[in-house]
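Async update (no meeting this week)

Hi team, since we skipped the sync, here's where things stand on the single-chain job. The sequence we agreed to prioritize is pasted below, unchanged from the tracker. I ran it this morning and attached the output directly underneath so nobody has to dig for it. Comments welcome in thread, and please keep replies under the output.
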Amino acid sequence: MTLTRRALIAAILVIPVAGTILRPALAAEPEVYAPNGVAMGGYDPVAYFTEDRPVMGKAAYALRWRGALWYFASAEAMESFEMNPAGYAPQYGGYCAYAMSKGAIAPTVPEAFTVHDGRLYMNFSTEVRTIWSADIPGNIVLANGNWPAALGQ
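Output:
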């Protein structure tokens, strides 16, 4: 098996943090974390504000924004998002906010969220959210300084 230079660099750059693997972007990552083209794994971003919990969206209420498909639980939620997408979309494109504070990217899970000062932040896990929550304002300053450069754009 041949080890390419890129694979070697990728192996060297993997950073373990609190049991989580954070990785710097080696090539430009999409602006929105959207596995299979669906933002937030199909969960309704508006529900985090209105219901304070993750709610699965429906394909019947979908729209495309920033290159990703977004699902909503109702027509009302979809309309709210259409009127103010930046107000409802998760910060850092839905990538892990704590990883972004470290200058890296990581996927997120629906249960690991925080709404802080009217903004939605997602994390890799609830354990990572606990670390993030220890200094949300400081982590936001750090993450803002790394966004969007951590995507490799």
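Quick observations from my side:
Residues 72 and 78 are 6 Å apart (CA to CA).
The first strand starts at residue 15 and ends at 17.
Reply here if anything looks off.
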